[in-house]
């Protein structure tokens, strides 16, 4: 599939079940997606359905990039990068200072998009107290940060 064959758009209510399947197939936690569903999520479609998703949970002045998932047939097309860049843009427009993520499998993917590994303790308290940090992702998950605020 060529990168030009998918389109990014804001997630809609009718996309939720497809997104939950997609994140489940990618072995990503689905906890909190339903509760946080809204304009903080973007989906990619290819004319046959949802082929990718990414979202941001807002915690104070920081965001948590989550649920970046791409269907197997769309991997290697640049879709994961496009979804991530779209959510970085969204986070900047929302006025967030930084975007964090937790990963157990994609530590080598995110640095090319500007994310750097940090210690768990470096994340803001509001973020560390989120369900994703506390309950969903294991303590072994790598924490990464992209500073969005000017001068940071």
From TrEMBL:
Entry's Gene Ontology molecular function annotations: N-acetyltransferase activity
Stored Pfam families: Acetyltransf_7 (PF13508)
Keyword set, alphabetical order: Acyltransferase, Transferase
Query: Domain of life of the organism in this record?
Result: Bacteria
What residues does the N-acetyltransferase domain cover? 6-149
| Record CDD domains | NAT_SF (cd04301)
For the protein in the UniProt heading, the enzyme class is transferase
InterPro entries listed in its UniProt record: Acyl_CoA_acyltransferase, GNAT_dom, NAT_camello-type
Give EC number(s), comma-separated.
2.3.1.1
Q: Does the keyword Transferase apply?
A: yes
Q: Does the keyword Hydrolase apply?
A: no
Classification via NCBIfam families: resist_ArsN2 (NF040501)
Name of this protein: Amino-acid N-acetyltransferase
- What is the protein's species of origin? Longimicrobium terrae
């Amino acid at each position: 599939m060529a990168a030009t064959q998918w389109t990014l758009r804001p997630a809609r209510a009718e996309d939720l079940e497809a997104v939950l399947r997609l994140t489940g197939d990618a072995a990503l936690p689905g906890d909190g997606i339903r509760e946080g569903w809204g304009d903080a999520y973007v989906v990619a479609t290819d004319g046959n359905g949802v082929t990718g998703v990414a979202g941001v949970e807002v915690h104070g002045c920081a965001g948590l990039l989550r649920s970046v998932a791409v269907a197997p047939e769309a991997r290697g097309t640049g879709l994961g990068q496009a979804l991530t860049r779209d959510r970085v843009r969204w986070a900047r427009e929302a006025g967030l200072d930084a975007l964090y993520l937790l990963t157990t499998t994609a530590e080598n993917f995110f640095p090319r998009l500007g994310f750097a590994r940090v210690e768990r303790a470096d994340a803001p308290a509001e973020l560390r107290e989120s369900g994703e940090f506390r309950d969903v992702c294991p303590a072994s998950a790598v924490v990464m940060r992209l500073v969005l605020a000017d001068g940071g």
